[in-house]
Amino acid sequence: MHIVICIKQVPDSAQIRVHPVTNTIMRQGVPTIINPYDLFALEEALRLRDAYGGEVTVLTMGPPMAEDALRKALGYGADRAVLLTDRYFAGSDTLATSFALSQAIAKVGETFGTPDIVFTGKQTIDGDTAQVGPGIAKRLDLLQLTYVAKIASVDLDAREIKVERRSEGGTQMLKSRLPCLITMLEGTNEIRRGSLKDALCAARTRVLKWSAADAGIEDLTKCGLRGSPTVVKRVFAPTARAEKAVQIDTAEKILRDIADELIAAIFTRQPALEHELAFNGGA
Amino acid sequence: MSTANRETPRPAAGRAGIKKELPERFKDYRHVWVFIELERGQVHPVSFELLGEGRKLADKLQVQLAGVVLGPPGEAIGSAVAEAFAYGADLVYIVEAPLLADYRNEPFTKAMTDLVDTHKPEILLLGATTLGRDLAGSVATTLQTGLTADCTELDVDTDGSLAATRPTFGGSLLCTIYTLNYRPQMATVRPRVMPMPQRADKPVGRVIRQKLSAAEDEIVTKVLGFLPDNQSAKANLAYADVVVAGGLGLGAAENLQLVKNLARAIGAEHGCSRPLVQKGWMPADRQIGQTGKTIRPKLYIAAGISGAIQHRVGVEGADLIVAINTDPNAPIFDFAHLGIVTDAIRFLPALTEAFTRRLSPHSRDKLAS
Q: Which residues, 6+ apart, have CB-to-CB distance to B33 below 8 Å?
């Protein structure tokens, strides 16, 4: 089977740099990692490949330095890596990103065989939108299985897949068909330590660098800022609240008295709570 | 309906070269829609929170607020429609079909995009639940329009555009996002970010039905079963009235028991900040903050939590925030209402004991006599 997994290189820290004029995020100088949620998807892809044979292609869109993330993925055991990088992609929102990635996945399919499954993490830790996966699925007309906690079975002959999908308040058991797109939940598996063989292979494997043209993208108006219906107009810091917390004095008091004082302060501010807590509590 | 101020759109400030030039085909897009999330017969409360927010936007724009109900024939649709009116909708669109019984992406996307194409809303809001996010991404891509995830504030600009504000980079910054040249303008909002509006008993108003142009045999994905979460194990943080949470200041995983003990004594839910989930001390569904749950309790007690911006975003809606931390300079004291500079590990047992004493029936009898 052929599996394509989309990963994203994300800033490791809360260090923020925002371009003062364009209001876009500046990534230079910030340490980067593979989006942690993507690692669960990568592990699942590698497990399926190990069980059923085939290849895992890892794909990312980003600046040239995103090659580092692909190298790491190769180190875990991915077979092939494609970096989609072009200045035309700069400033892409989720719709433009899903367009570029879907075009690249189609090109990967033409070149190396149509993927049976496309994986993404459930969301990224920088954008946090969970929109790119569904966007890719729609563009490629793939069946979409989001928030998958477990792949119960894959039947390559019948082209059938069964998954457990998290929803509000429970788990849905779904049967669907290949090819499909899966966004993988966190905590579903533990990412392997790459083997020495994988590390040697990774060192020898060339990361394919594709421009928009290489990926077969003809309509550049669908890429980058021009292809993004959403526009970031303002980036700003949250306003600080005027007053700080009222401190309960703890000096020279026993804990019991401090606790009584705190509780009195709570019920002075929220008188209705006292009855509710007495009713709810085990007290 | 006055649209005078929207027929002379002013060019948007900000990013160079980006102006509002709404194409002709979008000019008759009107009204605000809220997706009423119905899954297995239950309306998700986030839908009512969105109706409250949608009402404000519709009033500002002087347009109507509509609810959208997608589901199988049966009583659930009727009560969802009645509730939509009770929480402020002027009209409700319904697509009623057996194949909308359980949530599946394919028929729900089809139903929603058909409704949008036919009735042309200018704003479409959905809850950022697993269902809402799954659906919103597909609908926005199908319609080739903008979608802003997890908004914390929605407003209407002077030219009538939706200004959607959301945290970016873990909540350390906020950004305001516009969808200038495409319609509808779509946004998702997490449960509990917006306050629950007042419910008013109102008769069911205008209802517009649309048929679903899909049949079960065209839908590839089948639901084999559903396993509901164990009610006792399920964290109901988002809708809890009282929440007690622990952070790294508790020092060790076993000290979380102190948080649980206090929570049990006062009938509260317990939770934690992000580092504790990363350490594996508590499951992810107990995490409070930007990447976890947004809470809106009447009382929130944060023990040993420093109050990083990521956490702040998730608890700001609480009526009363009590912070217990050894560090007087911890950022949590900047947004808590009551603070105690002390060691939570020592203080929590005393607080639990004091609450128990104060709330016990015996002491209440004494108070009454």
A: B54, B65, B66, B67, B68, B93, B116, B121, B123, B124, B125, B184
Calculate the dihedral angle through the C-alpha atoms of B129, B130, B131, B133, rounding to the nearest 10 degrees. Answer: 80
Query: Burial of A179 by CB count in 10 Å (0-12 exposed, 13-18 middle, 19+ buried)?
Result: buried
Say how far apart CA B333 and CA B338 lie, in whole Å. Answer: 8
**Cα torsion angle, A61, A62, A68, A69, sign:** negative
Residue labelled with tokens 């009423």: B36
- Contact between A229 and B181 under an 8 Å Cβ cutoff? The reply is yes
Q: What parts of chain B have a pLDDT lower than 70? A: 1-19, 170-171, 231-235, 361-369
Compute φ and ψ for B283, nearest 5 degrees: -70, 155
Q: What are the CA-CA distances from residue A222 to residues A140, B20, B153 (Å)?
A: 15, 18, 28
A214: exposed, middle or buried (C-beta count within 10 Å: 0-12, 13-18, 19+)? middle
List residues bridging with B339 in a β-sheet: A247, B323
Q: What are phi and psi of B230, to 5 degrees?
A: -60, 115
Q: Which tokens in the block code for residue A162? A: 């069964």
Q: Name which of B340, B360, B364, B365 to mutate to probe chain A: the one with the most chain A Cβ atoms within 10 A of its Cβ.
A: B340
Give the ranges where chain B is alpha helix by DSSP (H): 46-61, 75-86, 105-119, 130-143, 256-265, 274-278, 309-315, 344-359, 361-368
Identify the CA nearest to B205 among candidates B74, B64, B92. Answer: B92
Report how far residue B15's alpha carbon sits from residue B349's, in angstroms, rounded to the nearest whole number.
54
Q: Tens digit of pLDDT for each residue in A222-270?
A: 999 999 999 999 888 777 677 889 999 888 889 999 999 999 999 999 9
The two tokens of residue A272 are: 């209705």
pLDDT, tens digit (0-9, with 9 covering 90-100), for B142-194:
999 999 999 999 999 999 999 999 988 766 778 999 998 999 999 999 999 99
Best to test chain B binding among A8, A148, A172 (most B CBs inside 10 Å): A172
Q: Residue B331 and residue B348: Cα distance in Å, rounded?
A: 20
A229 token code pair: 């219906």
The beta-carbon neighbor of A276 closest among B136, B220, B241 is B241
What letter would DSSP give residue B10?
Answer: P
Q: How far apart are CA A136 and CA B45, in angstroms?
A: 29
Can you tell me the distance from the alpha carbon of A281 to that of A260, in angstroms, rounded to the nearest whole number?
17
Compute the CA torsion angle B158, B190, B244, B267 (nearest 10 deg).
Answer: 110
d(CA B347, CA B324): 8
Average pLDDT over residues A83-108: 97
Q: How many CB pairs under 8 A join A and B?
A: 301
Two tokens, residue B179: 């969808």
Instruction: Summarize chain A as % helix, strand, coil (round to 5).
Output: 35, 25, 40
Count other Cβ atoms within 10 Å, centred on residue B283.
Answer: 13
The answer to whether the Cβ–Cβ distance between B130 and A126 falls below 8 Å is no
